[in-house]
Design a protein that fits this description.
Order of helices and strands: EHEHHHEHHEHEEEH
Distance between the termini: 27 Å
Helix content: 25-40%
Number of helices: 8
Radius of gyration: 15 Å
Length: about 190
Amino acid sequence: MTVGFALCGSFCTFASVFPIMEELAKSHTVIPIFSQTAATTDSRFGTAKDHLTRAEAICGRKPITTIEDAEPIGPKKLLDVLIIAPCTGNTLAKLAHSIADSPVTLAAKSHLRNGRPVLIAVSTNDALCGAAENIGRLLARKNYYFVPFGQDDPVGKPTSMVAKFNKIPEALNLAAQGRQLQPILR
């Protein structure tokens, strides 16, 4: 199976996401894709260059970092499944409103044209407020699947939710079959 693995700017989750990318690369062809923010922003969680280099080392190919490089994903049917992990509230909003203005959102739009699955691993501080509407929209759409998610800090960040990244492989296998891993909320 050929899997697109798209990373958005929830940098605090990269330490949890890269090991999953490594695990998947052992048994699948993995094509890394970075949002503009993820590809260009240095944070206290590492430099953009280090993240890009790590993804390239894991996947054996340079990450897609431009809209131009993401566009052929659909026409050439490059992917069987597209994973967006972490998927920020910003990206959720764009997907829910069919906005394709970044490498990740265009990859999704291009990939969806073939009726193929997009697997979303949420990571957003406003999942239970502003982003809730967008999560709901995507849950109701064909070919969108979610990695189970839950509150990561109910007291300190009561509206924040993060995917159970360790569930990505299981959710991926089911999404490839057109099935949603249950329960979604954990």
